[in-house]
Design goal:
- The chain has about 400 residues and is α/β, with parallel strands linked by helices.
- The chain has three domains: about 15-160, Winged helix-like DNA-binding domain superfamily/Winged helix DNA-binding domain (Arc Repressor Mutant, subunit A, Orthogonal Bundle), CATH 1.10.10; about 170-340, Rossmann fold (3-Layer(aba) Sandwich); about 345-400, no CATH class.
- The protein is built from 17 helices and eleven strands.
- β9, α12 and β10 (about 315-320) form a beta-alpha-beta unit.
- The radius of gyration is 26 Å and the shape is elongated.
- The chain starts with 19 loop residues before the first helix and ends with a helix.
């Protein structure tokens, strides 16, 4: 199981300091391929490994034979995304993962010259340079993007990826509606989407207050520049549903189509999702209250924790904050944006059919809840028995009937 000597701490990062064997193991570790054997992405074929490392396929062929003989990887066959026939793929073993972890640690202790878009160069540990990359944020990608002088030029690396197509998957998402008001809230949400700090954001508020509409408006502002996974919960949603949809989304990004049902322990599930998301730039949106299913509630918590640990933001809309929010808040991983009713001017635009006095009463009764205001406006002419009542009385009667069912 012996590999070449690793570089001593404090050395400058240079891909020539690592053997092809070491780099192959590192790549397989960072591809999230440990233990998978079904419908896997091209990066773990010989051709995919060669492309990721920037070397010839015949060099990879020699390396994988050696690593197999040492028990550090195993060969399998699987259907590759976009390919009809099954092909040979390579999966890292537990022994191989231990070696790859050691390689990653040593790389993290080396020094890298990083040049920014203003052509300023500074020295930093490789562990600090890796998060500055465009996805995939891996040590494999870091070494591949070093120039002949061992400098990481962030501007050039970004330019190479600027035309990459963003992947979006919206599951059960409501149709987009005209957005009204919420100027400050939208500004705060967009600022969070830029900084991603803290990594988890809750939008809370009463039913109909506009949580989903605000979240959708924030996502639209990304304009296809980011991978987005949106899942809106329905009353019959299960943990298998959301994990299946997440798996499909990750497969579109070249990740293994994993069978999440195999992971009975939540900690194992968390680690798996974190590994798959670690080199991506993804926004996850979990929209709406989850059904009262303990497993589903736990899965939502696991997804939020795993995504935040992988430096991917999570946006969650709920009526009441989940009970596990305290755990993340103590670790400064969670923020909250609580929505109150809309201002009067915005509500007036939602209720053009109401007389002024009737609108004033509706606004007070609903406290600016946009769904209730719109509902009362749409039924302004429905009831014959409200004729002859004052505007205020008509508003109160409709409010009791439509909102409270009395």
């Amino acid at each position: 199981m012996s590999l070449s000597l690793m570089p001593r701490d404090g050395l400058r990062l240079d891909k020539r300091l690592f053997t092809v064997n070491e780099r192959v193991l590192l790549h397989l570790k960072e591809s999230g391929s440990a233990g998978q054997s079904i419908d896997l992405p091209a990066p773990i074929t010989q051709e995919g490994i060669a492309e990721a490392l920037g070397i010839l396929v015949n060099h990879v062929s020699r390396a994988v034979k050696t690593l197999q003989a040492q028990g550090l990887i195993r060969e399998a066959t699987a259907r590759i995304k976009g390919d009809i026939r099954k092909r040979k793929i390579y999966l890292i073993t537990e022994d191989g993962m231990a070696v790859a972890n050691s390689v990653a640690k040593r790389i993290g202790d080396t020094t890298v010259s990083v040049r920014d878009s203003r052509q300023r160069t500074r020295e930093m540990p490789a562990s600090e340079a890796k998060p500055l990359l465009q996805p995939p944020r891996t040590y494999t990608a870091l070494m591949a993007r070093l120039d002949d002088r061992g400098v990481l030029d962030l501007h050039k690396a970004k330019m190479k990826r600027k035309n990459a197509k963003a992947v979006s998957r919206f599951v059960n998402a409501p149709a987009a509606e005209a957005f009204n008001g919420r100027v400050e809230e939208l500004k705060a949400l967009r600022a969070w989407l830029q900084t991603k700090k803290p990594p988890v954001m809750l939008i809370t508020g009463h039913d109909g207050i506009g949580k989903t509409a605000l979240a959708m408006q924030g996502v639209k502002s990304l304009e296809g520049g980011k991978h987005v996974f949106w899942y809106s919960f329905s009353p019959d949603s299960t943990h298998e549903d959301i994990l299946g949809e997440l798996s499909t989304f990750l497969k579109e990004l070249g990740k293994p189509d994993m069978d999440f049902s195999e992971h009975k322990a939540m900690e194992g599930l968390r680690k798996n999702i974190e590994a798959l998301l670690s080199d991506l730039d993804v926004l996850l949106v979990l929209d709406g209250d989850t059904p009262e299913d303990e497993t589903l509630i736990e899965v939502v918590r696991v997804i939020a924790q795993a995504s935040s640990a992988a430096s991917n933001p999570v946006l969650i809309t709920v009526t009441e904050p989940p009970r596990w929010r305290h755990e993340l808040k103590k670790r400064a991983l969670l923020g909250e944006l609580h929505l109150e009713g809309l201002d009067k001017e915005s509500c007036r635009r939602l209720a053009p059919a109401l007389e002024e006095k009737e609108f004033e009463k509706v606004f007070k009764l609903t406290r600016g809840n946009p769904l209730e205001v719109r509902l009362l406006s749409e039924h302004a002419e429905d009831d014959e028995d409200v004729k002859g009542l004052s505007p205020e009385e008509r508003a109160l009667l409709r409010y009791l009937r439509l909102v409270h069912g009395q």
